[in-house]
Amino acid sequence: MKREEYIDIICKKFCTFFKGGKEELTCGTYRFLAERFTPKELEHLISDLNRDPVYSCDDEVMKFICAACDFAVDGCDFRERGDAPPCGGYTIVEGLITKQKLAW
């Protein structure tokens, strides 16, 4: 189940797919970020991130996070069709890697 603090930081700020009322559903990048950072740490880390992904480390994000995401099997328009934006957590993870604030 999602926690309100993380919903505010990850989903509401970065995810174009976010709709309230589905707090039991979590994407792989949400789980990845919530397991590694407190809400306060995450808020600080994302303060200067661009909200538009550039896909600079897509292979790594796919390998380490998306491959194990529940939505990757059925429901990830970004991975299935390629014409939809990624989830908000993807944008955060990519931004943190690009800014060298996160390493595998």
Describe this structure in words.
By secondary structure, the chain is mostly helical. The chain has one domain. The protein is built from seven helices and no strands. The longest helix is centred in the first third of the chain and has 11 residues, at 4-14.
Percentage of residues in DSSP E strands: under 5%
Number of helices: 7
* Tally of separate domains: 1
The residue-averaged pLDDT reads 89
Amino- and carboxy-terminal Cα gap: 25 Å
The chain-level structural class is: mainly alpha
Quaternary status:
single chain
Low-confidence stretches are none
Concise synopsis of the structure shown:
With 104 residues, this protein is an all-alpha fold. It has helices at 4-14, 28-36, 39-46, 58-64, 70-73, 77-80, 88-98.
What is this structure's SSE topology?
Elements: H1 4-14, H2 28-36, H3 39-46, H4 58-64, H5 70-73, H6 77-80, H7 88-98
Characteristic terms for this protein:
104 residues, 7 helices, globular
